[in-house]
Design brief:
There is one protein chain. This protein has a domain at 23-71. Helices cover 45% and strands 0% of the residues. It contains five helices and no strands.
């Protein structure tokens, strides 16, 4: 066969899955089952500007604050 040697995708890229590394009984998995933040984005959409750089997704920001609270992380950096 002519042409370059075909490599498997896994050999070229680093594969990482959070589901494989976070235990099934982890605190954050149980919180995720009960916290539904999908409507937050719609409620806060009028406060975000359409010009300039996009802001942090409000759902992600609230999830980060919840993780910080649960694990005693005082900094938001």
């Amino acid at each position: 066969m002519m042409g370059p040697k075909q490599e498997a995708q896994a050999a070229l890229l680093y594969e990482f899955s959070l589901d494989d590394h976070v235990p099934k009984d982890h605190l954050l998995r149980s919180i995720d089952r009960f916290v539904d933040l999908s409507s937050i984005r719609a409620h806060l959409s009028e406060f975000y500007s359409h010009t300039g750089r996009p802001s942090v997704d409000p759902e992600l920001l609230i999830r980060m604050l919840l993780v910080g609270y649960c694990f005693g992380i005082r900094s938001e950096r």
